[in-house]
Amino acid sequence: MMNWQLICGPVWLVLAIGCSNQNYIPKHPPATSELFGIGNDDSVSPSTSTTAQQDTTPPRIILHNPQLDEQRGITPTPKITSAQTTLRGQAIDESGVAKVTINGKEAALNASGHFSAPLRLKPGKNPLHITATDIHGNQANKNLSIERKTNNVVQSDESQKLSTGRYYALVIGINRYQHNIPQLKTAVNDAVKVADVLKKQYGFTITTLLDRQATREEILGKLEILEETLGKNDNLLIYYAGHGYFDKKRQKAYWQPVDANEFRHIWNPRKRMDSNSENQPPPLFTTNA
């Protein structure tokens, strides 16, 4: 006869079929079986170990000086006027920043990722390439330009002619007067030196009248030629070294040309040229009389 018996263990349900011994209790696995995922070291089944994933995120670069107002992916060009400045910023990374370079040169870096580097700037745009590298070798790059603006604009010869015109000078020096007027010693030498400086250092077109060349007729003739030559943007400098005469009655000053006498003076030509030259700037006069 087949006996059925239900044995209830602590945690297992066992169905015994065809047992001849009613007192037989089948062995069951210990409560620490891997069936429940618990147990001592001898009974723990091997588990799959997971390796921590390495950081692959590059650092983030923030600039403090110069500050950038980056909008819609556009990096502006900061403008400064000094020849030197200090680039300052911060590289942020969870793993830690190893180094920051600016145009290939390593910048000063502290533990919080703040970096700085001195910059020397040429006039115009100065391109900068910033690279931040974390301890895992991940890199972030930022490219920008700093523009150095200068107040002194150097123009080419052609542009100077267009903007400021040409430069002319009439230089007069008289030592040896023809009539009863005291002779001079240094007027001609002074005029020659002034003409040399104006021509060599400042690019003036020079007309010189020295001693016997500086008659009343010649001086007035050269002034008329210059009036016809000068354009609207041209410039004229007149230098006179010689004797002068002041008429107290008329309250007027005169130059005395080499052939001067009591009737042959030249009234200061400024008035003449100012009144006849509507399209020209007034000439610059310097007189050593």
Tell me about this structure:
With 289 residues, the protein is of the alpha+beta class. It starts with a strand and ends with a strand. The longest helix is centred in the last third of the chain and has 16 residues, at 187-202. It folds into three domains: 4-36, no CATH class; 60-148, Immunoglobulin-like (Sandwich); 159-288, Rossmann fold (3-Layer(aba) Sandwich). It is built from four helices and 18 strands.
Distance between the termini: 158 Å
CATH topology of the largest domain: Rossmann fold
Number of domains: 3
If helices are DSSP runs of H or I spanning 4 or more residues, what is the number of helices? 4
- Please name the CATH architecture of the largest domain: 3-Layer(aba) Sandwich
Average pLDDT rating: 77
Strand order, main sheet: write it out: 4-11-10-6-7
Helix coverage percent of residues?
10-25%
User: Cα-atom Rg, whole angstroms?
Assistant: 50 Å
TL;DR of this structure?
16% of the residues lie in helices and 35% in strands. With 289 residues, the protein is an alpha+beta fold. The protein folds into 3 domains: 4-36, no CATH class; 60-148, Immunoglobulin-like (Sandwich), CATH 2.60.40; 159-288, Rossmann fold (3-Layer(aba) Sandwich), CATH 3.40.50.
